[in-house]
Amino acid sequence: MLVGLGAVSTTFIAGVMAVRKGIARPIGSLTQMGTIRLGKRTEGRTPLIKDLVPLASLDDIVFGGWDIFQDNCYEAAATAGVLESSLLEQVKPELEAIKPWPAVFDRRYVKRLDGPNVKKGANKMDLAEQVRADIRRFKKDNNLDRLVMIWCASTEIYLTETEAHQSIEAFEKALQASDANIPSSMVYAYAALKEGIPFANGAPNLTVDIPALMDLAHQNGCPIAGKDFKTGQTLMKTIIAPGLKARLIGIQGWYSTNILGNRDGEVLDDPESFKTKEESKKSVLDYILQPDLYPELYKDVCHVVRINYYPPRRDNKEGWDNIDITGWLGYPMQLKVNFLCRDSILAAPIVLDLVLFMDMAKRAGLSGIQEWLSFYFKSPMHARGLYPEHDLFIQLMKLKNTLRFLKGEELITHLGREYYD
User: Fold this and answer.
1) Is the peptide bond before 139 cis (omega within 30 degrees of 0)?
2) What are residue 158's phi and psi, to 5 degrees?
3) Residue 296: which CATH number?
4) Do 107 and 175 belong to one domain?
5) Cα end-to-end distance, the chain, whole Å
6) Least crowded by CB within 10 Å, which of 52, 129, 204, 302?
7) For the segment 29-84, what is each residue's pLDDT rounded down to a tens digit?
8) Same domain, 12 and 145
9) What pTM was estimated for this model as a whole?
């Protein structure tokens, strides 16, 4: 179940349908194409991840979701303009059959969008109950055993924790009172967790990253993960920054700017929504570089992030990075990156992996924050009192070691017996 049937969701859905038909490949999906080493290197055991752990088959996935616009998935995909019409035509009947349910939406939290397909209710608790009714109906109508909910909708305005977020009781009281501190995304997360469904947050919104919903996730045995899909520019940062730090190359400044023209770009043109995204994008370097441990190299990094709405680009985002670095004896150098990417093309395989891994986590009895899925997020959720891991390569190691652990395989630490013999 997808909250928001826009560019990301329709690219994901159409892509899975195309892969099912054998007319495209699931490039970028760890669950579909990734391998995992088991045991010692001499054993030569490197199965596909999907052959090691019991992931659901692509043929077993049924799609549903909410959106503020009434377009079916074929119409929404055509409007998004991400995929070529020649591919969309081959999955048109299946896409046309997926029609959005009325959404929980309030323009106070996403000021640049509005649409007619919106739920009405006495209060936010009433809206949450309507979402729960949608969930139960979808499950019954499609004879489903298990469900997963993924937030693929827009970035909401910047919010911080309040008293309403501190306990389940306070949160439910706030829902009854339609408290302004409960945005639409929290209504969905609450509904999913009350129904015992895993929930992943693909936007930088606060959403499920609050004590009340973390407690509810544990209480009902639900995995949760987030936040903000790691796709374009931040993906590059989590690849490049660990490399520079590993070689102890100094960084004086990192200037990042983006242009994009899709619905996400329009939403982020609002300063309050941009604030939410900025916090997510800027925190990456702070945690990777550890300036408290390496003050001479990284204490005073000038990190600037800009996002500009430019309609002609549509979903084809462009990110420019200028990195001022210093090497041996303090000599200055520069690194320039110009990443012309397709935002939804990078996000779609992330959605697929999260759907399958979150479903598996639920069956494995895991609940609460799934830190091993930090690999997929710009601002990974983490246990209180700890810092998040942003290094892409450490994140991947944690993910694969979790899979090894779940299957009773030896964890890979690169400290085998050969070092002691």
Assistant:
1) no
2) -70, 125
3) 3.30.360.10
4) yes
5) 52
6) 302
7) 999 999 999 999 899 999 999 999 999 999 999 999 999 999 999 999 999 999 99
8) yes
9) 0.93
